[in-house]
Design brief:
Layout (H helix, E strand, L loop, with lengths): L19 H6 L4 E6 L5 H12 L3 E9 L3 E4 L8 E4 L3 E8 L12 H28 L1
Antiparallel strand pairs: 1-5, 2-5, 3-4
Length: 135
């Protein structure tokens, strides 16, 4: 069996981060993904291409060290320190023209939801008017 087996790619589901910093990066076609520490750049690129049907041109990774936290076991116990887990993030640049919808909803859903909202308000007004006429 080969070391670079593609079967484990299907086990990971990734979603882009929806933060202010990542939103600013999207103007340059860069998307931020939290990934497992064991994943390599090529594996990340293949997974993003397969998941979102886009073309990846560049992948940069970083590992953020976990914060130091204090803990205590009991009222008079000596407090100790520990660390939270390290996290790995991938900054993925896409080919020009490609994009991933993170914050936007599809245009069709927006139009239908606006129409449904107008119809719902009309129905509420009609119900109120019908209640007034009965009294």
């Amino acid at each position: 069996m080969a070391k670079n087996d593609n079967t484990n790619i299907q086990l990971h589901l990734i979603e882009p981060r929806a933060t202010e910093k990542s939103y600013l990066e999207q103007t340059n076609r860069i998307y931020v993904f939290p990934v497992k520490k064991s994943m390599g750049k090529q594996e990340i690129a293949r997974m993003v291409e397969k998941e979102f049907n886009v073309t990846v041109t560049d992948v940069r990774t970083l590992i953020r060290n976990g914060k130091k936290t204090k803990f205590s076991k009991g009222k008079h116990a000596y407090p100790g320190t520990t660390h939270r887990q390290d996290k790995k993030f991938a900054y993925v640049r896409l080919k020009e023209g490609d994009s991933i919808r993170v914050f936007d909803e599809p245009e069709e859903e927006k139009k239908t939801s606006a129409k449904e909202a107008k119809e719902a308000t009309k129905a509420k007004k009609a119900d109120k008017n019908a209640g007034k006429e009965k009294k």
